[in-house]
Amino acid sequence: MRSLPVLGSPPAPVAGPVDTPRPARRLPEWLKRDLPRGNANFFTQSLIDDLKLETVCESAKCPNRPHCWSQKTATFMVLGNVCTRPCGFCSVPKGGTPEHVEDDEPARVAEAAARLGLKHVVITSVTRDDLPDGGAGHFARCIAAVRNRLPDSAVEVLTPDFLGDVAAIDTVTDANPEVFNHNLETVPRLYRKVRGRAEYQRSLDLLDRVKQRAPHIVTKAGLMLGIGESVGELFDVFADLREIDCDVLTLGQYLAPTLKHIPVARFVPPAEFDDIAARARLMGFKQVVAGPYVRSSYHAADMVPTKEGVAFHAGPDHGG
Length: 320
Hints:
This protein is α/β, with parallel strands linked by helices.
């Protein structure tokens, strides 16, 4: 596949914030796209319902859901549908009573992955600060169940920060997923507004711990653009990620799930995503994927670095 172009003379980073005085409301043309045709969406929906599973595609109101489900793929969300963190950007239900951990959920995730014929299985969760291990043991059991059912498939986890609990991080790492993803989401200045009780350094420390303990595991992090950050702040984060040898970086447009969430500060044009990705790639990431519709688990199999280097291009609609 073609890689994003590397620009010969990139412009200097913008010094000030990139947000505009008024929140951006109307979608630009590059964010408008047709819905996929066919019955695969119905197949995926029926399978998820039949196995009583949650997906981040639905709970987080992901704009890529119709496109992913039409290709018979989904990102499984375990440990219930109620999050214990009040993040300002996310539409996953929060503030209620967290759900009981279901012992048979790992087997149901594995069954769904088998029925969908997945070669790359992505498992995420709500944040469960109420559990002693933050749900780490459940992640490990899900990885084991998928491995048992689909020994030739890769497993990627997208985890919360486990409150920095080293034992919990090690539990998931020792289950040996091919990819360990933890999203930073935004720049440090915006953490309190965007990520609530999360801590920037804690997230960096998690990714660093994984790489130190298991260098063969691909580490991955994602950020949203257009939420009020500056380009200079973005590159400071990229530098921090390279300092801990993070392998894969994903960059996508922030889209407010509802009017109650943090408003979009601005819509970043596709060409600017291309430019930022090209410059970030020069910093040494094994893979950088950037575009308005890029999400960390969208086309996740294509984001894994190969021996040849970059294996993925965001495509004409920069959809990730």
